[in-house]
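Working notes for the structural subgroup meeting. M.R. asked for a predicted model of this chain before we commit to crystallization trials. I am recording the input and output together here so anyone reviewing the notebook later can reproduce the run.

Input as submitted:
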Amino acid sequence: MGMNKAKAKSYSNGFIIWLRFIAIFGALLCAVEYLLSVNSNFHHNLAAALADNFVAPAATAFIISLSNAIFTFIIIIVIFGCIEFRKNSNMFARYKDGIIYTIIAIIFSIFIQAIIYYIVEYWQITPLLSIDQLGSFQIIMPLLYLLFIGLMEYWLHRALHENAFLWRFHSIHHQIKYLNAANSYSHFGEVFLYLLLITTPLIMVVDLPQSNIAFITIFYLISNYYMHSDSKSLSFPAPLRHIFADNIYHHYHHSTNVQHWGRNYASFLSFYDYLFRTQYIPDEEIFPATGVDGYRPLDSIKDYFVRPFKKEIEK
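Returned structure, recorded in token form:
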């Protein structure tokens, strides 16, 4: 009898966990979708206004891309900030560094991206495959695209840890002690690598519709901020972590505990960690302490720019 009650209670708790997960993420996705659609309409009108004022097409594209990226970042951070809110905590202190350094990285990434697209257009480089050549594969192409990006990101992320020179850039991301959605910045040099080694090859392989590219870009952008969130209410039910990385799963990648080093490299698709034997499924529903012992946090914008190029990057 007691066993049956325990099972019933376990099922009930499991049902509540899944119901809470569906409700929270449903509301989160609806809020993000609405605000991003407002943002998209605003930038569509802005682009038309710039064109009406005879601003050069290249300049218009750069301004719209940069403004859209920054506004998207602000929208996402406002949403996560509301969820991560803690009483008696200084939200400005929790988010300040992340906002400053992330906006710097965004500016550089949009600039580099503009150069890449200019080169592709100037040299009239056409993708190896056109979406029209894919036939019935068009339906699943966005999914295949996501899977391929996940695989590429896994190995680039792993290289950032295992190569001494690349670690100089990536360590700036890992030295963050108070990790949250906004305070999860990376060095712009790392952003350059992602654009050069993942984005550029992909745009040369297949010509996806702009709507698909926008969806995939937004998906990975949101998932990146989400995985660094420190809100327990946003965590997945434990069984899902074998397939998808949630914020608890990824925080163990940032853990100061040596037994967690070299684990959980995957970006959102956690099964890549399982395939390549780097997966650590946490037993506890907690966020471990993050940071890298011996690496001091950034203390200035100058430090953000020059830290990877110093002879000593530790304390």
